[in-house]
Amino acid sequence: MVALLSVEEAQQRLLSAFHPLDVENLDLIHAAGRVLAGPVQSTFDIPSFDNSSMDGFAVRSSDVVQAHPDRGVQLMVVADIPAGNNPQVVLHAGQAARIMTGAPIPEGADAVVPVEQTDFSDRNPDLEAPKKVRIFHPVAAGAYIRPRGQDVHPGEAFLQGGFRLRPQEIGFLAMLGIAQVSVYRLPRVAVFSTGDELVPLDRPLTPGKIYDSNSLTLVALIKKYGGMPVNLGIIPDRLPAIKSGLEEALAQNVDLILSSAGVSVGAFDFVRQAVETEGHLDFWRVNMRPGKPVVFGSYRNIPYIGLPGNPVSAFVAFEVFVRLAIQKMSGSGMMPRPVQRVRLTQPIDSDGRQSYLRAIASNAGGEWSARLTGHQGSGNMRSLVQANALLLVPSGVKSLPIGAELDAWLFDLDG
Ligand code: AMP
Ligand code: MG
How would you class 245 by CB atoms within 10 Å of its CB: exposed for 0-12, middle for 13-18, buried for 19 or more? Predict the structure, then answer.
């Protein structure tokens, strides 16, 4: 029998078998959520020209030094500059130009006076510009101007490889005219369930049978963490069926094969035999609860992870192990989870293994507290559904009193 591994040792061993996948070029419209493969540089300034941040009048600030609410300074309006226009005008002393938000600042002007500080406060662009305008407030040079290069200069690498593109980066890349980006390929992950008790959702339940829920949970988790699931459904625990399931996974070019159930040493015989014809398989007993038995190996050089069958164990083992493997293949650095320190509102018993307990964590006036949700059995999905957090009870801890502090993974913060 294999020695008991700590969660960290098991994670390290597992991760050493995974590598960032290859890279592909993707249109920006499809790149959200993908991980950049290298730095991205801008080729021009953002903003690319000095422009107005307000609807108003472009002026020479020295002309309106004397402006006052009771005593406006009158300027001649010599141009009307809507957004999208490329003004040819040069402002001389005593002159102004009506200007809209985003429009280029004309030469000679060094500030914008918002319409509200003039006697022409109607911002309707269909209305013809006045011949003259009265300015009621002085403005500092540079006021309401977004200067060229304020955000980005050409050659500046503003995003690094390994970064997962969020909606805001997609928009920023578009601002820079970058229509395609080089990103890591999505990890393709095959999922199958084994067990004679399992029935797919499109069949009626008969006595002694249960629905195959794990493959659905796992498919959803794979998507959540940025993988592409390939669902192979239920595979009967017989050698030829498992062999052809594994071959099907390979035919679908997967980067990882995931199964649930039957991971105790004896029960897994056919999966073991099938995998070992073209690979190897190790049974890991990990010092954790739930999710202790995990199987790790490879079939024809494709990594294979066998998760426990109990639905909560499969979920937790995915969160603890498979998530890391998917992240590494995706090219993103290990993303630490948001962890919240919480105070127990009830005593807790543990068995000395590192435990992941289903809980509701809540924040009252900045103080985080947590209580367990219902049955904590590894088959009780209800309490996982009720939970918004997993409490992390460290290994070696057997009991904790009310008021003890613990780390918790908050589900709602990580999506
Ligand atoms: P095993 O790992 O095969 O001993 O299964 C442990 C428990 O998980 C048993 O109660 C199984 O019925 C249950 N189980 C196994 N696979 C699934 C699955 N795909 N969906 C839901 N429950 C499962
Ligand atoms: Mg079974």
Answer: buried
Ligand closest to Cα of 313 equals 1
CA 352 – ligand 1 centroid, Å: 24
Phi first, then psi: what are they for 284, rounded to 5°? -110, 130
Determine the distance separating the centroid of ligand 1 and the alpha carbon of 138, expressed in angstroms. 75
Question: Whole-model pTM?
Answer: 0.88
Q: Residue type at 236?
A: P
Distance in Å, CA 147 to ligand 2 centroid: 66
Nearest-angstrom CA–CA distance, 372 and 370: 7
The two most distant CA atoms of the chain are separated, in Å, by 94
Question: Of 352, 351, 341, which Cα lies nearest the Cα of 405?
Answer: 341
> What pLDDT score was predicted for residue 262?
81
On whether the CB atoms of residues 304 and 295 are closer than 8 A, the answer is: yes
Specify the 3-state DSSP secondary structure of 152.
Answer: strand
pLDDT tens by residue, 135-188? 999 999 999 999 999 999 999 988 999 999 999 999 999 999 999 999 999 999
CB atoms within 10 A of CB 213: 15
Quick one: tokens of 309? 């069958």
Dihedral angle computed from the Cα positions of residues 194, 200, 201 and 205, in that order, rounded to the nearest 10 degrees:
-100
> What string of DSSP letters covers 12-45?
HHHHTT-----EEEEEGGG-TTPBBSS-EE-SS-
Task: Find tokens 């390994």 and name the residue.
Answer: 162
- Runs of H (alpha helix) within 163-310: 167-175, 214-224, 239-251, 269-277
